[in-house]
Amino acid sequence: MKDPKDSTILVVDDEADLRDAIAFDFKRIGYRVLTASSGNEAFGLLEQNKIDVILSDVRMPNGDGIALLDRVKARNVHLPVVMFITGYADISLEEAYAKGADAVFPKPFDRKALFDSVTHALLPFDVRPKRASTRVNIEVPVALKFLKSNVNILSKASNLGCGGFFVVLDDQFPQLEECEFGIDSAFTPVFRISGTGIVRWVRNTSLDPNYPLGCGIEFTSLEQSCLVQMIELINSLKTNSLIPRK
What are the residue ranges of helices labelled H in 190-237? Predict the structure, then answer.
């Protein structure tokens, strides 16, 4: 992880009290912190400063958080990392992760979880999969064990992202719970990935044939033996999604 003194966080929120409180918490740890009251103001600061992480509200006048995320990823898909802190349902979890957001925190948010996510986001790129801009489909078998509901499922992962994967499901749907997984492909590229994850969202109804039923799972840990292979695989797939929507 980068030393906090070498990292800059941009806090974006039109609520001054909340914006200042978040900024104070990170300054106290040692981070350099900038603040903005709108997406447009934040993007202006981004063009003038080297920023590592953006913590942004979604609903704001003069440029909302979704537009800011799109502009940030169009500029550089690698950095800065963008996380949402929102009290509204302006964007679904699956859409946020698919657009490239690294995390979504509902208001009121868990401060420890926020700090942990920022810490993870500042890990060196040689231990974090890199992002590019082109989506590539891949369908491979996946074995899942959902730990809370104690359900085992054999299915397929229809797409991988740099931080998770989408699993196609028919009639058994998990809760937002932890799981163990194994993804195994005998086709090109040949790979096996195993580890633990957490279900971030579930799609158990859909009227759009382009979006099948299933769930989005974020990686929480990978077996050490497959870490290097995983990074190489994600870089070859060139996906800008944390967790793909399909």
Answer: 227-237
